[in-house]
Amino acid sequence: SLSLHRCGLPREIAIELFQPFVIRGLIRQNIASNIGVAKSQIREKGPIVWEILQEVMQGHPVLLNRAPTLHRLGIQAFQPILVEGRAICLHPLVCKGFNADFDGDQMAVHVPLSLEAQAEAR
C-alpha cells in the first residue's frame, strides 16, 4: 500500500534520525522548557512526541542507500512515513534499483539537513 515515492521508517529509527527536530518542536510548542526535558520526553515516548515526529517527517525527505552504490539508483530519496516493526518498508518496484531482495539486506538512511539538499532530494 506504499506509493513509489514513500518509504516506511520504523519508529525507533525515525525518532533517532529526527531527534533534533523533535526537540525543537517540543520546545517551540512550550511542551518542554529545555533540551534536557525534551530528551526526557522523547525517552518516555509519549503521544505528543509521535505527533511532533509525524509533523517533522512530512517536511523532510530521506535518502535510502544500499551498499555497494554502483549506479545512481543505489541511493534514492523518499518521503518517510512511520511504520510499526523494525524493518524499512519499500514499494516492490523500487527494489530493483537497490538490488534489494528482502533476505536481510541492510540499508543506510540519511536526512538531508540544508534547504539545498532537501530541494535536491525532492
From TrEMBL:
Transferase as UniProt keyword: yes
Catalytic reactions of this protein: RNA(n) + a ribonucleoside 5'-triphosphate = RNA(n+1) + diphosphate
GO biological process: one example: DNA-templated transcription
Keywords: Chloroplast, DNA-directed RNA polymerase, Nucleotidyltransferase, Plastid, Transcription, Transferase
Family: Belongs to the RNA polymerase beta' chain family. RpoC1 subfamily.
Annotated function: DNA-dependent RNA polymerase catalyzes the transcription of DNA into RNA using the four ribonucleoside triphosphates as substrates.
UniProt protein name: DNA-directed RNA polymerase
